[in-house]
Design brief:
alpha+beta; 18% strand; six-stranded mixed sheet; homodimer; 23 helices
Chain lengths: 681, 681
């Protein structure tokens, strides 16, 4: 349900606009609107291009509406943040000049922003601006006479395509890490800068140690040197921040504040710094849109043990109803006031919690310098946010029914069309988006769809582009990993389908992946068990055949928030966070044959209490599968499955069929009928 | 094969002994022998009470032999280290006086010694001497007006029996940890002492932080204050140290030194401090006997990157052939020279590795004060020691055949005798020891045998005593967990047998434990997998029934060394050490019904490479089961087992039968024939 965009006429000039704004009692004059639009254009457009109008005036006259749209169109046409072009050598030269001006011998350029999030606003794409590298993780280090860029295994090919490797020596982030490079390159007395907003203490520790060993020093900068030379750097993003209704949140923000404040007080804390925007969104029951695919309102907060909150966020991005929604226990202040508020905590010698994984060094340093006792622990919102309440779970089920309908329509369409050999990865992804967009309360995809045909399916983090866009044709496997943001919740589902006739090997591999998926879906485990303890269940059937997959088995998923959320995780990397009822995680084992095909079967599941069998001594947990999308039966080799596994698959398909059948069109119903039949029938 | 003890006559006096010693060209006069005997009596006697004679003279005359034995007997009769009596209140008072004299307000008394080992020599039993507590883990903290003792869940009952709780408040080591008590009790300005030999940096970190927060200070002591007031404290133990033959070690000490030295050099280290006696024993191919059940020679070493070793160990305990065995690349120095050697490394500004888990704070502090760069990492011997070479593995198989014979004889005897109801836990354990002692190259049990009938079997760390000694009678389960030290290797095996008729519940539980055991025994996993990743395989069948066990699933086992050895472990506690070919670990899931019965099935297994199935892409590892002892078929419920599990059990029993049958007496053979029949036959 997308709003009709405002009619875009020719822009009549600021004087005209001033008059229209004044007449409607708007918050800004034309100059103010231009400033606002700089931030609006620096945020993703989202599904409603006119959503920003709420920041100017409620119910604008048609004339004002049209002029605002025209101004936006004009500014958008001229908008150039320098991120679309391949970076010129001048950018690196300008940065080096700026460093010299500051007396620095080098500078560290991470990919992350102040919030250590997976998605960053365009303003924070400093690594991309400087080097051209667009991957989601990486780091560059610039010295006076040389520079290096560090990327992980996903990006070793991409970095050579995007980056001028004569200027930035490409290195492997894990095997040839930045601290080794620093150790080799740093000379005694060197001063290498870093932006303390963009690093955590832990993240910087090894670089610090390496520099120190080489006799060099890491120096925090006051302001980021790149910002000084990135002349057309985007503004801070200003996507509208709206209340997240209690019908979706299930618990009022006041309740959450009170509950967390009591816990802080009990643990002897005066306050906690909240720097993760999803925590902030959860705590205050608000949603924004400052980064792609995730309804995050970027900002910082201090949660006091009294239950009040200082929210540091540009007030311009709050739609009017947010102010009463936040109430008088939440003080909204500009981000520039954050430092002074930390100083106050310091002067009070307060004990303050800062998240060890995401808290910016800038904040903990400022607190400590001011006299506070900083305790690096876990963001107090992380665990309650991860444990969805009954309302959130009920909404998640609704979102998954809606997503199941879209996926069923898509897979039915694909089954009819793919064998013609005219579809491509891009056209299929577009079609899937169209089916999803037709669903109620759809707001966005929850990440860029992975649409991989044949060999592209074997690239775990494949991102289709015009250059790689492959045709979907017989006989190949097609892997599609996609998700949606509904007001009711966030989805994430992967299906692998055979176009035409699969090979026996493909059926063997698919069935082993499915066995792992079922082992996890049917696991029962005592309270206190972590996701790491369950990871092997999803791999054992693959291991027996001497194969494996090189990614985690499950990540936490937010409630109309981040599709990747902590603190729990199902992974062979140790994670000691116990799975708790209400946590939503993905269940996604896979298998990838390089150059040939990829297989992944992903459902979201919610941790739930399960009925204890007779004689049980410990409270047992298990998983409720949320995702409702058929699993391709033509890829299943029943001879490899146990009767119990077949029973699970048949029961799952019966549930999918029963739930979706009444909600789909006749053509999809025909397909669904076949796709959900029991194995062996 | 135990040596005949020397004939013990009346001791004729030192003058007589001096003459006999002189005549045989012994190393000592009577006074020297008396000094030596103080250390000999402070070590466990072992299986050969005359072993110590080798430290005095080779091939003594019968007269000298008799007089030495007589003197030992006389000193042994008078030997009183104060550990047999319940401690008098005077001990605590004397300690407090000593603390006051040193200007200390308190003192921390850990159970561990300088080597952080599981077993400590009697001299280091300071916690037992002060409090009476004899458990294998714990800590006391003494302040001027109060004191507390901290023990874990295993010992909460025992501590109340052994310790005067009016003087030592008993607290739970995990739930009410020492640092919380310090935080509550310490006052600003307090100086609380600790012996820096007995703590690692990590072990002390939280106590340090708590004391600091309370405004107090932890102060390292120079010498242990308890030693100053424990007037009859045993001497340093002096058990003979002997070469460990290359037939058993499989690799010469020179090779080991060279290999490790090259690695140290490559990593930029000048030296490594070796403080774990099992590392020292492995590195130098020597074995001693300073602590119970484990052939450890206590001492310290510095391994230089040149390949030479400084060994700090009382030279009196080396049998003469050790000196040529060590060769001229190993300098033997008294322990008192250790500090000066560390100072030398400091003066050379050397980079020195100290084991983070076991290295005494005293050593790293001394190094750092002297100017060295200390890197806390892993003992360089830990991983190569864990990965047994082909010779060690072949010997381990031999040791397990021998152990299997002893166990088969024991279980056959038990099957014949137990139903009469006249056996007790103690008499059964004694009989098992007798069967083992009859085996070639048997040196000791590898730990105190756990012999638990009925409800005692449910106490995981049960240690039978005269007070708890239960009768073994129908109808109950009997659990026996025991191990041996053979020159060829260390064993550890647990079997649970039904005396009379087991209940359906017992069969259900036993079978689930067995399913977990088999799941682990048959696991295949790619290189790089850690034991933590496999732990859940052993629990899943129990979890399905809502039950579990509260101990690890597997520990590393040494090669004629410690029965508990790292760095690998199969446990739900995260451990990132990858399992490597040659590592020996236990496979010991269990189930314990408090007040009723306990079940554990334990085999030792060796990590091995397994043949890759067709299409395999990754090198696969699996386990070779070493232990050869029948598993009680009457406790197996075949209806709960898969065909694959039954096939494993039948194949295991066929192997046990084939291997042991030719080696046992006719009565045992009859029993073995039945005990190893296929399930269902």
């Amino acid at each position: 349900m997308t709003a009709q965009p405002a009619q875009s006429l020719v822009y009549q000039g600021d004087r005209d606009l001033d008059e229209l704004l004044r007449r409607d009692g708007a918050r800004y004059d034309a100059n103010g609107v231009r400033d606002l639009l700089a931030g609006v254009l620096a945020a993703p457009e989202g599904t409603d291009p006119d959503a920003w109008l709420d920041l100017v005036v409620r119910n604008p006259s048609p004339a004002l509406r049209a002029q605002l749209a025209a101004l936006k169109a004009e500014l958008a046409a001229r908008y150039d943040d320098g991120l679309k072009q391949r970076p010129s050598p001048e950018r690196l030269a300008a940065l080096r000049q700026e460093l010299a001006r500051r007396g620095l011998d080098g500078f560290i350029v991470p990919r992350g922003d102040e919030h250590q999030g997976e998605y960053v606003p365009s303003r924070a794409e400093r690594l991309a601006w400087l080097t051209g590298f667009t991957g989601s993780a990486g780091m560059a280090i610039v010295l006076a006479d040389r520079a290096a860029i560090f990327v992980d295994g996903r990006y070793t090919l991409q970095v050579r395509k995007e980056v001028d490797t004569a200027r930035f020596e490409p290195r492997h982030l894990i095997d040839e890490p930045p601290h080794d490079w620093i150790a080799a390159q740093a000379r005694p007395g060197m001063r290498i800068g870093f932006d303390p907003w963009l690093h955590t203490q832990d993240g910087l520790a090894r670089l610090h140690a390496s520099a120190k060993r080489a006799g060099a020093e890491l120096v925090p900068t006051d302001g980021n040197p790149i910002d000084a030379v990135w002349t057309n750097q985007p503004a801070e993003p200003l996507a509208p921040v709206r209340p997240h209704d209690i019908r979706f949140a299930g618990q009022s923000a006041a309740d959450k504040r009170e509950q967390l404040a009591a816990k802080l007080a009990a643990e002897g804390f005066a306050a906690a710094v909240i720097s993760a925007p999803d925590s902030l969104a959860w705590l205050l029951n608000i949603r924004g849109g400052d980064v792609p695919h995730t309804p995050l309102p970027l900002g910082f907060a201090i949660l006091h043990a009294s239950g009040t909150v200082d929210l540091f966020m540009d007030p311009r991005k709050l739609v009017p109803e947010v102010v009463p929604h936040l109430g008088n226990q939440v003080r909204v202040e500009p981000r520039a006031a954050f430092g002074a508020a930390l100083d106050q905590l310091g002067q009070a010698r307060a004990r303050v919690a800062v998240d060890a994984a995401t808290g910016p060094l800038w904040a903990s340093d400022r607190l400590e310098r001011a006299g506070a006792e900083v305790v690096r622990g876990q963001d107090p919102c992380a665990l309650p946010k991860a444990c969805k309440n009954e309302t959130e779970l009920a909404n998640a089920r609704t979102a998954h029914v809606r997503d199941g309908v879209a996926l069923a329509r898509f897979l039915a369409w694909l089954a009819a069309e793919a064998s013609k050999g005219e579809l491509t990865e891009l056209s299929a992804a577009d079609r899937l988006l169209a089916f999803r967009s037709a669903g109620e309360n759809f707001r966005d995809t929850s990440f860029t769809t992975i649409s991989g045909a044949g060999a592209n399916g074997a690239i775990v983090h494949y991102r289709v582009s015009a250059a790689t866009n492959a045709r979907i044709a017989p006989d190949m496997l097609y892997l599609v990993d996609s998700g949606a943001q509904y007001l009711e919740g966030t989805t994430d589902v992967t299906r692998t389908v055979a176009i035409g006739q699969p090979t026996p090997e493909q059926r063997d591999r698919f069935t082993r992946v499915l066995k792992g998926h079922i082992a996890l879906a049917t696991a029962r485990f005592p309270k206190g068990t972590s996701g790491s303890q369950l990871d092997t269940l999803a791999r054992a059937a693959l291991w027996q055949a001497g194969i494996d997959y090189d990614h985690g088995t499950g990540h936490g998923v937010g409630s109309y928030l981040s599709v990747h959320e902590g603190p729990q995780r199902i992974s062979k990397v140790p994670n000691t966070v116990a799975l708790l009822p209400g946590m939503i995680v993905s269940n996604e084992p896979g298998y990838y044959k390089t150059g040939a095909y990829g297989i992944r079967i992903e459902n979201l599941v919610a941790v739930c209490e399960v009925e204890a069998p007779a004689g049980a001594e410990r409270p047992l947990l298990g998983f409720e599968t949320l995702t409702l999308v058929p699993i391709d039966r033509t890829l299943v080799e029943p001879g490899l499955m146990t009767p119990g596994e077949i029973a699970w698959l048949d029961a799952y398909h019966a549930r999918v069929r029963q739930t979706l059948m009444p909600l789909v069109d006749p053509a999809t119903a025909l397909w669904l009928d076949v796709a959900t039949r029991p194995i062996g029938s």
